[in-house]
Design brief:
Largest interface: A-B, 64 and 54 residues
Number of helices of chain A: 10
Number of helices of chain B: 14
CATH architecture of the largest domain in chain B: Alpha-Beta Complex
Structural class of chain B: alpha/beta
Strand order of the largest sheet of chain A: 3-4-5-6-7-8-9
CATH architecture of the largest domain in chain A: Alpha-Beta Complex
Helix content of chain B: 40-55%
Oligomer: heterodimer
CATH topology of the largest domain in chain B: 2-enoyl-CoA Hydratase, Chain A, domain 1
Order of helices and strands of chain A: HEEHHEHEEHEHEHEHHEH
Distance between the termini of chain A: 45 Å
CATH superfamily of the largest domain in chain A: 2-enoyl-CoA Hydratase, Chain A, domain 1
CATH topology of the largest domain in chain A: 2-enoyl-CoA Hydratase, Chain A, domain 1
CATH class of the largest domain in chain B: Alpha Beta
């Protein structure tokens, strides 16, 4: 377990479709983390990693996300070769630089976000996707910088921006540098707004803290996948502070919709069509 | 000895007690006066010595000192004709975050800051300086009011963080903070930020985007409280002193990293020893920086504000 799954036990890594150690030995088989149904990998890919039995949306990596969202073969990666800096020389039980090395080698990603441009139903778009397996999708200086470059690309190419957020929040190991990325990314989104380009935020389970309180909540349109957990403070922190039992469904997409935080909940299989339909109205010039 | 004395301040407090006792006796025994003077100079030397080598964790304790001056103490000493403005016009008035219009040497300004409260009753009323979403929405309303009437905005940051609770989540704590970051980044008014005590996480940053960011000498600013960082990263909340050190929460480190632009010097022994002196120091910083920022056009100002953010972590 990483620090985030300890903080929010209900979103433990056993729900991660890509890293879960299936009870079924063969790599072709998987268990649904929600209903434990045995899932056949090729079938699962066809259903976009949504359990055909219970509709649970399994976690997927940033690149899988991009490949199922963009028109086939149109994804081109942007904002690469931005490396993480250990400005504070942070060390806890392990050094930050060691943690970065491990995250890079276990995910194959240089940081916790992937940026790219391509097409959605033929229309040019720029998209960003957080990689949750990379230190819980936490945002430090490099993630902030990559996101801003994504915004800049959308402005340069005059395209809408879509961000798939899934993140434990600001990255502790960069302390104030991380915290300031909330301001940096929010300021960049203001530039996008000034250019009259739409920003669609798609919330993926889970999003907390600094990413929730910046990139995720600032969409012109806020969309969430079903049953995604999204909040400012983690459930455990709230329970310890207020000492009450949390209401049923607290901080889930359905709760957010009821309280007015998001525009809609969209099933993964409908996401392309839905975003495309919204953009055709907000930004019909293409 | 007062309960409001930190462990490392005790040797200073002991000398202070002796001075007090001698002063009582001195009215009948003037020969005690030289001894009082000697003790006073001893106290000053001791305070200087202790405060010159505070650990990061001790600085955190000074930033949270129960006697530390708060936003309303500063407002009273720095500004004239303060008119407090209340409410977010949507849900409630959040007393943990105060704001209003006032004059700074005759110039109209908007002031917004966290307020922790002083006695127990007031602390409860002010939720210990931890705002709900309506606090941030009041702040946003006041900033936009300042923009409308072309006034500079001055913010005072002093919070452990935004309040983590069920109601705050229902009313969109994340959105309220995020919106302030966006609004502040493009607000047409000059914004001066002063971190006066604890700068805790997103709840602090929601007042923290500006053209000039100053911090008091013993102020702290971090992504999470040292206790929260310790429990997340070390998985032991008693590692808070180590977490404070590792996150480099103190003023001089923050200046080196480029998070803050200026450190405002505190009186010897900390701001809680002398509210008037620290207020005067803050006031002169505000006046100097407002004059400095007046050299820029509005467009240049916004460009500078954005560039300042882009540099961090690039």
């Amino acid at each position: 377990m990483n620090w985030l799954t300890r903080l929010i036990p209900s979103i433990g890594s056993n729900r991660d479709s890509e890293s879960s150690k299936s009870k079924v030995p063969d790599g072709l088989w998987n268990n649904c983390p929600a209903c434990e149904a045995i899932l056949y990998q090729p079938e699962l890919e066809k259903s976009l990693f949504v359990c055909p039995k219970c509709d649970h949306h399994l976690r997927i990596g940033a690149r899988t996300r991009m490949s199922i969202f963009f028109d086939g073969g149109s994804f081109q990666e942007l904002a690469t070769k931005i490396t993480t800096k250990d400005i504070l020389k942070f060390k806890d039980t392990k050094s930050y630089s060691q943690r970065i090395k491990e995250a890079v080698s276990s995910t194959g990603e240089e940081e916790a976000i992937v940026i790219g441009k391509g097409k959605l139903e033929g229309a040019e778009i720029v998209a960003a996707a957080f990689e949750f397996r990379y230190m819980g999708g936490s945002m430090g200086g490099a993630v902030g910088t990559k996101f801003v470059q994504g915004v800049d690309a959308a402005i340069e190419h005059k395209t809408p921006l879509i961000c798939f957020s899934t993140s434990g929040g600001a990255r502790m190991q960069e302390s104030m540098v991380s915290l300031m990325q909330m301001a940096k990314t929010s300021a960049a989104l203001e530039k996008l707004k000034e250019s009259k380009l739409p920003y669609i935020s798609v919330m993926i389970d889970p999003i907390y803290g600094g990413v929730s309180a910046s990139i995720a909540m600032l969409g012109d349109i806020n969309i969430a996948e079903p049953k995604a957990l999204v909040g400012f403070a983690g459930r455990r922190v709230i329970e310890q502070t207020v000492r009450v039992d949390l209401p049923e469904g607290f901080q889930k997409s359905e709760f957010l919709l009821e309280h007015g935080a998001i525009d809609m909940i969209v099933h993964r299989r409908d996401l392309r069509a839905k975003v495309s339909s919204i953009l055709s109205k907000l930004y019909p010039t293409q | 000895m007062s309960i409001n004395i930190l462990e490392f301040e005790k040797p200073i407090a002991e000398v202070a007690e002796k001075i007090e006792a001698l002063q009582l006796a001195a009215s009948d025994n003037p020969e005690l006066l030289p001894q009082i003077d000697k003790l006073k100079s001893e106290q000053a030397t001791l305070t200087k010595k202790i405060y010159s080598k505070l650990s990061t964790w001790q600085k955190v304790q000074v930033a949270r000192h129960p006697n530390r001056p708060h936003t309303l103490d500063f407002i009273e000493r720095i500004f004239d004709e303060f008119e407090e403005l209340h409410g977010d016009r949507q849900f409630a008035d959040d007393a943990s975050l105060v704001g209003g219009i006032a004059k700074l040497e005759g110039m109209p300004v908007m002031i917004i800051g966290h307020e922790k409260g002083r006695d127990t009753e007031e602390k409860v009323k002010r939720n210990f300086g931890m705002p709900q979403p309506e606090g941030y929405r009041k702040a946003k309303r006041l900033m936009q009011l300042a923009e409308q009437f072309d006034m500079p905005v001055i913010t005072f940051i002093d919070t452990a963080g935004a309040y983590p609770g069920v109601e705050g989540e229902e009313r969109g704590q994340s959105e309220a903070i995020a919106r302030n970051l966006a609004v502040m980044s493009s607000l047409k008014s000059k914004i001066l930020v002063v971190v006066t005590g604890e700068g805790g996480s997103g709840g602090a940053l929601a007042l923290g985007v500006g053209d000039h960011v100053a911090i008091l000498e013993y102020g702290t600013y971090s992504v999470a409280s040292p206790e929260a960082c310790a429990s997340i990263v070390w998985r032991e909340s008693d590692k808070a002193p180590e977490a404070a050190e590792a996150m480099k929460v103190g003023a001089s480190d923050l200046k080196k990293i480029g998070i803050v632009d200026e450190i405002i010097v505190e009186p010897i022994g900390g701001a809680h020893q002398d509210y008037d002196t620290i207020s005067a120091n803050i006031k002169s910083s505000l006046l100097k920086n407002l004059a400095e920022l007046s050299k820029f056009s509005q467009e240049e100002l916004l460009q500078r504000r954005y560039q300042r953010l882009l540099k961090i972590g690039a």
